[in-house]
Amino acid sequence: MLSVKSLRIVSSSRAVLHPCWLTTNRLSVSKAVTCSAHCMSASLHKKCTWLSSMNFRALRKERQLLFYTHRAPSLRNCCTSQVKLNCWNCKHLLDKTPAFFCVSCKAVQPPEEGASYFKIMDCDYTFTLDTQKLQKTYLQLQRCLHPDNFSQKSVKEQEYSESQSALVNKAYNTLLKPLSRGLYMLELEGMSIEEGTVSGVDSDFLMKLMEINEALDEARTPEEANKIGQDTKGKLADLTVQIDAALLKGELQAAKALLVQMKYYANIDEKVKEKLSEFM
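^ that's the sequence the OP posted. Answer follows.
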């Protein structure tokens, strides 16, 4: 790559031989210098970004217990836009995102596109979130956003309240149970578990599931069915601990495999409830 000084020397020598060259090619020289500076800047930026990434990985390894609060959030975990928004009604600047109401005119706001369920429900991005706090937030939001509160408002506010209320419902139901919460966290990281798939599942594990299902079908008393239910709940609790540990370490593939197992055990748990209802 030519330095700026070298370009000046070449320019001067060419100008002596061809007086018109300096005038007609000044723009080309300027472009070459600009391009050189841009390439150097891009190279330095790339190097700094790489070093920052290396430093972050080292920090995360040393402080795994604080993984969720210190890790660099991916685009999937955050709202798609950090731009300040204004109220659709009075144009006042909204104080936070996602915003449910304008602090100035109190008008209900439309749902913010791309906001994660964790942000909507004001929860920490963690598999072991506080479900009591989640339920409290849910009740507070629904008391404020329920469409019945806006029956005398404009059509637009009625539509926004219905959309916000439905979104809060969906966010709450997704985050409430460990299985749906874990699957949603994988989805935020760009991973998913296909419906009905058994690929990657250990054959011994599938055999064990068949035995449990057969025992449940053959259960003739509530005690027998309840015993299977208690064993299943214990397994679900154990899987919850393992999944949380995998996510804390950023081991997404391991978390995915464990969530597949949780999905099967959650299905058995539902079958136990159905079986117990037959004895009533």
